[in-house]
Each structure stands twice: as structure tokens, then as C-alpha cells.
Amino acid sequence: MNNVHLLLSLGVGTIFAFLLFFGLYLGLKWEGKKAAFTTILTMWFVYFPLAYLYWPGIDVFAIHFVFYTMTGYGLGIVTNVRSTRMRMEGAETQGGWFHWAPALIVFFFLLLTLQESNLITKSLSHKPGIVAHDFRQKEGQYNAHLRQLKIQKERGWKITGGWDRAPLINESNPFVIKAHDKAGNVISQAQVKATFLSTVNTDKDMYIDLKEGEAGVYSADVTLPLYGVWTILVTVKKGDDLHEIKGQIVVDPEKK
User: Fold this and answer.
1) Which of 27, 44, 76, 174 has the fewest Cβ atoms within 10 angstroms?
2) Structure pTM?
């Protein structure tokens, strides 16, 4: 399931829920509440084992749980109006199947849930390393992050640097990183990458390779296009050793 796009799994599941509900409601002539309850239980019965076997992370699990539950619950609400009128009048009701007011409310919540799923999808596509955005990561990845921190502490590399002054919006400045091992020797011929993650617009996130000038010194000219807080992730890799550091910088909205 990890390879299935979030919106695809939500869409297929929702279509299945609709077909099941109306099969029970129209085909078997069940009441809306009963059909909705059965639909919700069926969706849980199908999805929960899959989620357990292919754990997608609590965020993805939650969005599926809410969406599948709201689909059945919403169909139960909007069809219950018709069933109630049928019982009161003792005959088929005239007019549409759904009352517009509850249908509009359910549609709003489904639309809101769909928007949240889109945000989750975008967040899952912005994972440049173990440390970046760890609050959004899956449990296994976060455990890997903790193991990585322990290894880094034992290794004792010293990764320092950054800008010589706070960056301004749309202004190019050299971003310089110096790498030394535990004994103070320079770490040369390493692969050094810097990731700049915007809290304003993730579409502006940048991934830059830093080039080595003098031994152990890696740099690149960086221009941050948006104001606000940026999360910075620097990874230094040499051979099988990987070292990561993370920080934040605030970019002023205007040049001073």
C-alpha cells in the first residue's frame, strides 16, 4: 500500500463504499441507517487488516479512516430524510432523493478531508532525509532518525557554517559548510547537500549540492525566494558514514 497514491486509494475505497451502500439501500431495500452502518463496518473490515500489514503511517491511516467513515455516515444522513418521510406519509415520496442541507454539510466535510489528504501527499513527497519534517514521518522512519542521532553522537563529526549574516529575500549569498572529524581533521571529498524547506510554500523547497573548494569546505550560492521561516537540512556523506544537521533561519520580507 505504500506504493499506492493516497488520492487513488481514497477514490477507489469511496467508490466501493458508494456501490455497497446503494446495493444495500436500493437493492436489498435496507433502511439508510442500517445500510450506512454495514457499509462503515465493511470498510473498516477491509481496510484495517491492509493497514496493519502495510502500515502507511498514522497520518495516512487517519485520513482513510475518516474518509471511509464519513462516506457511509454521510450517505446514511442524506437518505434518512427520505426514509423518514416515507414512514410518515406511508407512500413513496415525491421529489429528489437527498435533502440539500445535510448533503451540503457532508459534501463540505468530505471536501475538507480531501484537501487534508492532498496536504499529506505533498508532505510525503518532501522527505530529503531522516531529520527533515520528522513530525510528519512514519514511525519506522522516526526510529531510524533516533538511531542516526546516536550514531552521529558517537562518531563526533563537527559540521559548522551557514551564512555569514542573516539572508534576505531574493538576495544571493554563499552558504558555506565546514566539516571536521572527531579528531579535528578536515573531511574532504564528501558528498554535501543542503535542503531548504519553506514553511510558507513547499513548492519553493530547494535541494542544492555543495561543492568543495578548499579541503573540508563546501559551498554554493543560495537565494531564498520567500520570506518567513526556512528549515535547513545539511547532509554530509563520505563512504558509508552519513551525518545530518538541521536548523532554521528567518528571512525578512524586505531588504533593509
Assistant:
1) 27
2) 0.47
